[in-house]
Amino acid sequence: MNKARRNPFNLAAAHGILIVYTIIALFPVFVILINSFKERRSIFREPLALPHSESFSTVGYETVFNQGDFFLYFQNSLIVTVASLFFVLLFGAMAAFALAEYKFKGNTLMGLYLALGIMIPIRIGTVAILEMMVSTGLVNTLWALILVYTAQGLPLAVFILSEFMRQVSDDLKNAGRIDGLSEYTIFFRLVLPLVRPAMATVAVFNMIPIWNDLWFPLILAPAEETKTLTLGSQVFIGQFVTDWNAVLSALSMAILPVMVLYVIFSRQLIRGITSGAVK
Amino acid sequence: MRQSRIKWHIIVFLAPAVLVYTAIMIVPLFNTLRLSLFTEVDQERVYVGLENFRTLFGDPRWSESFWNALGNNFWFFFIHMLVQNPIGILLAALLSNPRLRFSALYRTAIFVPTILSFVIVGFAWKLILSPIWGIAPEMLDAVGLGFLYQPWLGLEETSLTTLALISVWQFVGIPMMLIYAALLSIPDEILEAGECDGITGMSAFWKIKLPLILPSIGIISILTFVGNFNAFDLIYAAQGALAGPNFATDILGTFMYRTFFGFQLQLGDPHMGSAIASAMFVIILIGVCFYLFAIQSRMRRYQF
Q1: CB distance B17–A2 less than 8 Å?
Q2: Are residues B63 and B25 in the same domain?
Q3: pLDDT tens for each residue of A216-251
Q4: For chain A, what percent of residues have pLDDT higher than 90?
Q5: What's residue A4's pLDDT?
Q6: How distant is the Cα of A80 from the closest Cα of chain B, in angstroms?
């Protein structure tokens, strides 16, 4: 009956287009990775060849390890990302619970107020944020970044989490109340475990933009000891721009952590996007 | 009696989020708008009303850069709408075919560029397109198109479009995913009903699926708009704060950064920076309001 859907030619064409696009998507990453393991001459002579015994070299990585403090940058990125996610999830879930569970004056208004930040980017306020961080002495500390990313992540977190919390059964919470549990215990013991999948979605959504951000580390924490991996690799590559081995190795090392995270969380991420949580 | 008591737990639940959000996001936003009405004279802040905006839009030294950045920003957005969204829709339409195998694999692979940082994307493409390394010219040579090669990122006429296409390459995964989700949520009964009326294949896509995914296309368009009008990172990573060559790739984000942070010989000016930020705020606000009132409210949503 349905000729178009069964037509093997159409299916082959679909595979063809998708394969071509997959190659376009992965090609630059592939080229960077293979060339980071080659010695300088082979990088230029045969850029598309895999490294073999003759051309293999890790001289770029040696430069990166000797010159750049990538371990520190990595640690900074990790601290900032994990701490921001923790606060986004904790504060976001608490506010979402208040909005979803209790009827109080100004509930809708509060919801709208918190939702404003979904569409208005926090970067617009950078000038005043920098001024505030300077006057509170938080500039060039990781706290500056953690606070900014927490504020940036909260609007969407509250929006998504309150949608999910409305679906938690009232009977369960009321049973808890009859057993004499406080509102706090109900939230932490009964409700939070039930919305764990939504929390994971929010975490994955926030993780990548925080990890990859260049704007705020550049403006709020450019000091050597607070550089994040993204800013660190930007500065490092800028300095070593003629040392192709070092640049390619630094790029590969910056790709590695995100790729590992992506492989671990890609199912969660894709499920989160396709579940319609952001519609 | 109980109704009138203050419910402390509500306040405790709301307080941390509201405080952080208000202090770090809302207050600085309004402070930035306010700062744009001041200027610095002899290290003192003086109220000048809309003078900064008059300078920004009217004084040739400033207005030239501003209109250049704004125009570039619109071109940047235009390329995204023209290239990113059609490709995203095409890929999603192909992926949503239930008989297609390996679709999860394709999805995962095509989404990879989206998770990479702008620094990686910017430098990786800079290296690949570089005439020194020669990957791009060699590959074009291999298919007999070598004469087409130019150092696209280095030429004034092509650099902005090239960067926009690099950004498209990076973000095409997002429209693909959202459209894919929307296509999956179309019930089979509707498509089968169409089949009974003889609507299959391409015409089923144009006549049934496309109208049903229009709300998702609207969301993608506004996300792209907001994202493009506060973009900065890719241009900075690939071309530096000067957005070369000769400011050909300058957009509002890089213009604001240079103005408020200073570069080379020019000193940073937080008040002019705030004025540019306020202009960006108004542009984004107009876009969002246009979407909410003119597009979203008129779009019919179908409930299945």
Answers
A1: no
A2: no
A3: 999 999 999 999 999 998 888 888 877 888 888 888
A4: 42
A5: 47
A6: 16
Confirm if A160 and A98 have CB atoms less than 8 A apart: no
What is the 8-class DSSP label of residue B116? S
Residues B19 and B123 placed together within one structural domain of the fold:
no
Do both B128 and B274 map to the same domain?
yes
A91-128 burial code (b ≥16 CB/10 A, e <16)? bbbbbbbbbbbeeeeeeeebbeebeebbbbbbbbbbbb
Contact A274 B181 (CB under 8 A): yes
Residue spans per domain, chain A: 3-62, 68-239
Domain count, chain B: 2
**CATH number of this structure's domain A68-239:** 1.10.3720.10
Query: What is the average pLDDT across A97-102?
Result: 92
Positive or negative, the CA dihedral B118, B176, A154, A263 is negative
Q: A213: which chain B residues are within 8 Å (Cβ-Cβ)?
A: 233
pTM of the model: 0.89
User: Per the CB < 8 Å rule, is B133 touching A150?
Assistant: no
State chain B's mean pLDDT as an integer: 87
Check residues B2 and B85 and name the one with the higher pLDDT: B85
A-B Cβ pairs (cutoff 8 Å, strict): 264
**Could you tell me the pLDDT band of residue B299, with boundaries at 50, 70 and 90?**
confident
Q: How would residue B301 be classed by pLDDT, with cut points 50, 70 and 90?
A: low
Chain B residues with CB under 8 Å of A15 CB are 100, 102
CA-based max dimension of chain B: 85
Identify all chain A residues contacting B26, using CB atoms and an 8 Å cutoff: 116-117
Domain interval for residue B6 = 2-35
- Is the domain of B128 the same as that of B14? no
Q: What is the pLDDT of residue B172?
A: 93
pLDDT at position B288: 92
Predicted complex ipTM: 0.87
For B154, counting Cβ atoms within 10 Å of its Cβ (0-12 exposed, 13-18 middle, 19+ buried), the class is middle
